[in-house]
Structure formats: C-alpha cells, structure tokens
Amino acid sequence: MPPEAKGLDASVLAEQSLEAWNARDIPRLVDLLAEDVEWYDPAMSQPPARGRSAVRAFAEAVLRAFPDFRYEVLGPVCKAPDGSRCAIHWRITATHTAVLTPPGFAPTGRRLSMEGIDLIEAQDGKVTRILTCFDPIAAAEQLLALRLRQAPGSIRERLMVGLQRLAAARARRVSGQ
Fold first, then answer.
1. pTM score
2. What is the pLDDT of residues 18-48, one digit of tens each?
3. What is the pLDDT of residues 94-132, one digit of tens each?
4. Could you tell me which residues come within 8 angstroms of residue 20 by beta carbon, excluding any fewer than 6 positions away?
C-alpha cells in the first residue's frame, strides 16, 4: 500500500513535529506519535522514552528549561522511497534559563547552538521511532563553559589515559584475561 493511502509519510511527520516544537504545541507533537513510540535522545536522563506520555514529559522538561528552544531544518530531508523512514538534519538554538528535570541540572544562562540528525520511522501516519544523534559533549561544553575533552598532550589527557589504563587492567583481572 502506498504511503499516501496509509497517512502521512515520515518526512512530513518530521517537519510537522519540528513545527510543533517551535510553536510549543506539545499536544500537537504528541498527536503525531504512535501510542508505543520509542525515542532515543542522548539528552534524556534515561533513554529511550517509550510511549506518548514519556515523550510528552521530556518535551515539557526541555521547553521549561530552554524556553527559547528553536529547531531549524538544515535540509534536505532524506527519505526512504516508501516514505516509512527519513533523516532530518537540524540546528537547535536555546538558552538554559530554568532547571532541567530530570535529573535536576541548574540553569546556566548560557546559549546553546548545536547540529544533529533525527532518524525517524513512521507507520500508518504516526511516528513510531526517533533516534536523535548529536555530540552531547560539545553541547555540555557550551552550557557549562568547560572544556570536557582534553587537549592533545595535556596533563588532563595524560591523567585520563592513566585512569583508563588502570580501569582496563582491572577489567582484564576481573575477566581472567
């Protein structure tokens, strides 16, 4: 059965979802989702969110913590020939002005600008699965004004390598290798 006969395809649903986010229209966003939707986003405290209520809670928490949150589609949207899947390249800008719960991160007042990709699956005119991909370390560095990745050759890098080697040696001992 062609996608038109079953309802909206994944790319149309993705674009409508981003419009709903930008309009802060959470009921509209949730209505685009299948009851048993699954969404994996590295920004979630315990991914994936399963079901409409879990996605609603995540979206509400994000919009509370980042009230100026905005998606921009960087295009083009790539979609499967049958319309069941798509990939959408986006940029998010937002300012962290309130507590992000869960887990309870305090507002930093810092502005975030990051790019990522959502891989979206749809069936019967509803989003069934979302996989969000972005660099969470780069996002955290912007929000915290801290460098989390060590500079090559720095004392921090050498310390991290030493700690990793200790952890690896312990793991080998525990596994009997």
1. 0.84
2. 999 999 999 999 999 999 999 999 999 899 9
3. 999 999 888 888 999 999 999 999 999 999 999 999 999
4. 26, 28, 29, 32
**7, 77 Cβ separation under 8 angstroms:** no
Give 3-146's CATH code, choosing from 1.25.40.80, 3.10.310.10, 3.10.180.10, 3.10.450.50: 3.10.450.50
d(CA 24, CA 158): 45
Q: Could you tell me if 140 and 114 are in contact, meaning their C-beta atoms sit under 8 angstroms apart? A: no
Which string of DSSP letters, residue by residue, matches 21-89?
A: HHTT-HHHHHHTEEEEEEEE-TTSSSSPEESHHHHHHHHHHHHHH-TT-EEEE-SPPEE-TTSSEEEEE
